[in-house]
Amino acid sequence: MKTFPQTFLWGGATAANQIEGAYLEEGKGLSTSDVQPHGVFGEVVERVEGDSALKDVAIDFYHRYPEDIALFAEMGFNCLRVSIAWTRIYPNGDDAQPNEAGLAFYDKLFDEMAKYNITPLVTLSHYEMPWALVKNYGGWGNRQVIGFFERYARTVFERYKGKVKLWLTFNEINMSLHAPMTGVGLPTGSSKGEVYQAIHHQLVASALAVKACHEIVLEGKIGNMLLGGLVYPLSCKPEDVFKTLQENRSWMFFGDVQCRGAYPGYMLRELRDSGITLAITDADREALRSTVDFISFSYYMTGCVTADEALNQKARGNILNMVPNPHLASSEWGWQIDPLGLRTLLNVLWDRYQKPLFIVENGLGAKDSVDADGSIHDDYRISYLNDHLVQAREAIEDGVELMGFTSWGPIDLVSASKAEISKRYGFIYVDRHDDGTGTLARSKKKSFGWYKEVIATNGASLKA
User: Is the model's pLDDT at 319 over the cut of 60?
Assistant: First the structure.
């Protein structure tokens, strides 16, 4: 019988800026997420006293985490992906000393997880950085930010080395190509050269964090995190096939550097052809040789690529400008549903890197309706996750080494793309709405019991 490894990590994934709230409590500074109240593609809004945004409270995990961790434990989680808000530790990024109140919060959070034997998987920077580093230094465009990030990473490694063994550096690091403010703290409209220089600084910082983790955290493992943007050729025309190769390389480049320790030849050519000369020092090249232990990634959808510019123009504004696949259905938000694509991607990444893989985001955002008796029948979510997990199991049969699966949004949270809570992902419903109303009460959806059984049976209950 096809099965998952006995050591498989089952759980869910969250981000500090989408669940915690308490956005200025106990010394926390403003982050780039705090000044993007309308999501990762939204404009920057300078905060003024007395204003408010949905993420300021989010689902109030900062104060309610014991209740939520207990619910995750009831589902059988043995892993939970969380992120540390950099601005809770260094409110301005360049502070002389870390903020003890912020450090103490995550101590309490990790201790609560340990009570239930839930393994923390911790992202150092999940779609946010100190806003002061953007205002005062120019974000990741400034080489000095590498040092600020390394110091932050070393601070949390030292503090939590006895509690956290699994780490990730930057969430969906390739997203900087599409949302530069969210990814690297650069304004929309920055030149390609400016964005790639900032990305270079971030890749060096990621590698320095890998080195620091290996020095400080005994038995620690640290991975990268990619937005799994797999695309297919729209046709079998050679031009479409080659264009697809180039598009897939545009995001796999990040994995190539983080897993192989150097810039690949195709990217050196791309930079040359674009007239871009990056400032890369010998120390940078040496730093990049510290490579990750495993590869984690998000997977939500696939898309198509064509060399036909007229068709590409029609796709502008679609997620990552992908051309829709005529053979696939779509979610309410236009994200195409492709379970087999997950098996394909797992095999592609395994063939390319031969490093353990970890699916750290996968899930379905949908508008859930609450019945009169309070029940929520989210069979569409069950179907989506079932079909993707079946394909993950097939990839394991193919020989892929897969560490675990953390579904995105095990509890409803504020979405990254549009900063709305009506786009729900959770097994747990949170009574909060886009206008900020609601009691924040938690309740279980039908998918809660379904996922509990999946975990209890180590995937044997999945329907192929």
Answer: no
CA distances from 71 to 12, 59, 208, 248, 447 (A): 12, 15, 36, 38, 13
373-393 b/e with 16+ CB inside 10 Å = b? eeebebeebbbbbbbbbbbbb
The DSSP letter of residue 241 is H
The set of residues, in sequence order, having a beta carbon less than 8 Å from that of 363 and lying 6+ positions away, is: 300, 381, 384, 385, 407, 408, 409, 425
d(CA 230, CA 304): 9
From the number of C-beta atoms within 10 Å of its C-beta (0-12, 13-18, 19+), residue 434 rates as middle
Q: Does domain 7-455 have CATH number 3.40.1280.10?
A: no
Determine the distance from the C-alpha atom of residue 308 to the mean position of all C-alpha atoms in its chain, rounded to a whole number. 31
pLDDT at 324: 87
Domain boundaries of the chain, sorted by first residue? 7-455
Q: Tell me if residue 314 falls in helix, strand or coil.
A: helix
With bands split at pLDDT 50, 70 and 90, how would you rate the model's confidence at 136?
A: very high
Q: Which residues are the active-site residues?
A: 361
pTM: 0.97
CA angle centred on 46, ends 41 and 51, rounded to 5°? 105
Percentage of the chain beyond pLDDT 90 is 93
Instruction: For helices 339-353 and 379-397, give the axis angle rounded to 10 degrees.
Output: 30
Cβ-in-10-Å burial (0-12, 13-18, 19+) of 41 comes to middle
Which class for 352: exposed (0-12), middle (13-18), buried (19 or more C-beta within 10 A)?
A: middle
Q: Pairing mode, if any, of strands 119-125 and 166-170?
A: parallel
Is the pLDDT reported for residue 107 higher than 80?
yes
End-to-end CA distance of the chain: 12
Burial of 161 (0-12, 13-18, 19+ CB in 10 A): middle
CA-to-CA distance for 379 and 3, rounded, in angstroms? 23
Helix (H, G, I), strand (E, B) or coil at 221: strand
Confidence category of residue 316, pLDDT binned at 50, 70, 90:
low
Q: Which residues contact 22 (CB under 8 A, 6 or more apart)?
A: 28, 57, 60, 62, 63
Please report the pLDDT score of residue 45 as a whole number: 95
State the pLDDT confidence band at 320, using cuts at 50, 70 and 90.
Answer: low
Tens of pLDDT, residues 13-30: 999 999 999 999 999 999
